[in-house]
Amino acid sequence: MKCKFCDTEIKDITFDLGNTAPSNELIIKENLYKSEKIYPLVLFTCSNCFLVQIEEQVGGIEIFNEEYVYFSSASAYWLDHAKKYCDKITQRLKLNSDSFVVEVASNDGYLLKNFIDNNIKCLGVEPTQSTANEAMHKGIPTLVEFFNTSLAKQFKNDDKQADLIIANNVLAHVPTINDFISAFKILLKVEGTITIEFPHLLELVEHNEFDTIYHEHFFYFSLYTLNIIFSKHNLSIYDVDTLGTHGGSLRIYITHAGNILDKNSDKNNVNKILEKELNYKMNTLDYYSTIKDNAFKIKLEALDYLTKQKKDNKKIIAFGAAAKGNTFLNYSGIKNDIIDFVVDETPYKIGKYMPQSKIPIYPFNKIAEVKPDIIIILPWNHKQEIVEKLSFTKAWGAKLIIFIPKLEEI
After folding, report:
1. What gap in Å lies between CA 348 and CA 344, rounded to an integer?
2. Euclidean distance between CA atoms 130 and 68, whole angstroms
3. Cα separation of 265 and 368, whole Å?
4. Backbone angles phi and psi of 142, in degrees to 5
5. What's phi and psi for 103, nearest 5 deg?
6. Do residues 334 and 20 make contact, with C-beta atoms less than 8 angstroms apart?
7. pTM of the model
8. By CB neighbour count within 10 A (0-12 exposed, 13-18 middle, 19+ buried), where does 363 fall?
9. Is 105 in a helix, a strand, or coil?
10. Which of 68, 128, 196, 309 could form a disulfide with 314 if both were Cys (CB 3.0 to 4.6 A apart)?
11. Which domains does the chain have, with CATH numbers?
């Protein structure tokens, strides 16, 4: 395959996770015994720009359809995270009623509602009808479209360039990365800012977060590589924040290269993280070879632990029908004969089944009814919030377990 950014031929495989179903493609009961669509899930690293990526197997139209089941508002943590960001960026950029904010992949409007509350004009661009409908129901202006250069040119022609463009956890979802970033540049005002949040590849490698690899994520980013990518498009990363989200993320601040904002930025934070990445040798192929070995160790530990518990007739369930959970389960070969069911708080998921493993998804109150011995927390990045929700299970001595970054009883 060729690198989706720089077109360099990539010859070596970094990590082959096998053939799997798309991680958010839950199964309805009527289709439970029908064939599933499965695709290779193989990680590659470009030897030129060190962009870590998968080959496109599933298109955006297939993934982000009307059945898409991820709603950001389901998490109190994300709502709080969004509000803190909006308060901070409003003050930093001095946004007011004359400003215009665009969020790309705005989901159910969980973030933009904060700007609406502060009388700041905004627009969400969201390709998924189900989540867009929820946003519009909340009174948040939302365009049901995929973001690209064609759409950005329409905005510019209508004199609707943005003071702030927000793209949280979406850059990895777009295989046509050069077109996507070109669209940012077109839409952005001369002294405007783009903020982008993404899971930091350094954290993925160092903390064995292989379950964040799935078909929706075409890319896995280091700041080193993103600096190269944005520079090609004459955009500059002028600041960066480190975040605890998704097991360790970065929020980068971007503007047009050479403008006043860019010239007046010291970029100390950017340089510190770039230096850290180079110290880890993220600009070498050898660095990424550990992903495969560490994932295999976690797989063996998980299978060993679960089979021992099952032999002792323990009742095992999981919390959170998350995409990352499906990667972990399907790579490890864990099915519904090991895990009895998964509980979730998203109404759209309840009554469906996890892809490939065919583990049923039940509502939260099923826990108290069954009183399981072991609860596996699949979305480990929300473990603190989930542990608090599950505190009532101490009454019968349930064990709360995570497998990533390592097997741990919480």
Report:
1. 10
2. 7
3. 54
4. -140, 130
5. -110, 125
6. no
7. 0.91
8. middle
9. coil
10. 309
11. 72-287 (3.40.50.150), 290-409 (3.40.50.720)
